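Journal club prep, notes for RB
We'll compare a predicted complex against what the paper describes. Inputs for the zinc ion case:
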Amino acid sequence: MKKSELASVVSSIVQKTKVLDVHTHLYSAEFGDLLLWGIDELLTYHYLVCETFLQAPMPYEKFWAMPKPKQAEYVWEHLFQKATPVSEATRGVVTTIRNLGFDPRTVTLNRLRQHFKSITVEEYIDTVFDNANLEAVVMTNNVFDHEEQTVWAKRRKRDPRFLAAMRIDPLLNQWGDAVPRLSKAGYKVKVKPDTATCREVRRFLADQADIMEPVYTAASLPPSFEYPEKSERGILLDNCILPFSRQRGIPFAMMVGVKKLINPDLHVAGDGVGKADIGALERLCQRNPENKFLVTYLSRENQHELCVTARKFHNLLVFGCWWFLNLPSVIAEITCERIELLGPRFVPQHSDARVLDQLVYKWEHSRKVIAEVLTAKYRDLMDAGWAVRKSDIERDVTAMFSGNFKNFASL
Ligand SMILES: [Zn+2]
């Protein structure tokens, strides 16, 4: 291949290679209202709510008391009509609206609402998967969510495009709340997680996994996460989550670095970021070689040491540019750093989409940056004297977009 052709070849391979999106908050159609979609959901996404309060502050309670369509109108007015939608989250809405076939600058909110009224969710799932060129997405399935449990109980046929992930946060982060819920569900647990309690928690996890068939277990963890730790979290991790994940042969996914509700008035939009101690992950991987860890950190300051740690442990797979890192400038930096330290053995991105429509922009924006970074890296390799072939690029992109995850999770 000629160096002059490189950019267009890489870009076309990155565009046409299907993605397995390893972490989203989406659901298949059978979960009903749990699957968020449409313009009002898109506009009231917590990233945008947060930015609206910067642009046009109003009393928090007043905003939250408004019905969702009113909240969406407020966001639309202040972020798109009275300001330029140049932030990444607002640009995402622009990309999504353009992909629906409308001019984002002139279309009205009511016209967009009409459009969504005219389509079914099943049709829209097909359109979005097609548009974002996705093979499948991994959902986030909360083991304590009553609404979800009702759907799981009567679930018959699965949509193979939606894989399950068993989210177990309350067990590690709010054990005090988890105890009464487990007791109510028929598991004999005590506030002090003794041997018998841990056995019951493992039984609970096994029962849940039999229903969901998860591709991994997952939790988000605070920047203060330590390992090992003489705490309820430490005991539950060592005696329940890790042995359970090991026996099932599935990874434990850790999303580390979220500071919950630094501004509680913003509700779900109020979380912040903190740098975590990478030593906890080093010890976790070293002391549990039979476990597999799928890991992302929220702080940019943790990214370089995360790559270094991932070089040392083949039971660790790094994924995604999460939340506050999902910005073109930062994705470019992190992806470049990962390639230089790990070669093609990582998962460059996940969408974290909460609203179905977001898959469209999140993947369009990420694909562009990933293609640019890969082009630069293959150019360096050509300069070094390696004749890069199209088949090399196809193999690498397939690995990064789905293969690495499938191998790691034994799918
Ligand atoms: Zn998430």
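Talking point for the session: Residues 19 and 82 are 36 Å apart (CA to CA).
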